[in-house]
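note to self — DONT lose this again. spent like an hour looking for the file last time. sequence + predicted structure for the chain T wanted, 177 res
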Amino acid sequence: MHNIFFAGIKHSGKTTFARLLAEKLNLPFVDSDDLILKSIAPVSVREFYKQNGEKAFKKVEAESVKNYVSSITRTFVMSLGGGASDNDELIEIVKGNGRLIYLVRPEEEMLAVILKHGVPAFLDEKDLKGSFHALYSRRDKIYREKADLIIDLGSYRDKGETFLFLLEKMGDLLNER
């Protein structure tokens, strides 16, 4: 089996389902955000980004994942950050070291979930729907081009049922040698 990388829009279920899959397969689970935090500690991701900019953040993001991939000797499951689609170097590392799974959820639902946690810096407060639509559309297009498997989770309510659906969709990929 190959390493499995979950990608998707912020709050799409990447971490939840990557963790559940790792547990089911008895594999290590890692969140790329945690790898980044280790690299930039004691500064937060938000503070690092604000102080150093997007280019520096993307570099640390790609390097953090690359270092992890080269340091582990067994198959693993990783959840990528919501903006991974915007980091060409990171996507190249992912594609060269495993399978990229894109988790899709309805755009309107994703915006509602994101806004439950407050308005993030990447959205325009004067045009929440418009700015999110532009972001969602751009990232969706990239993930659809790059992903090895696209799983439309729809409007899931029950994580257990959704996880079983995900396992079913991943069947062939999980059986690869």
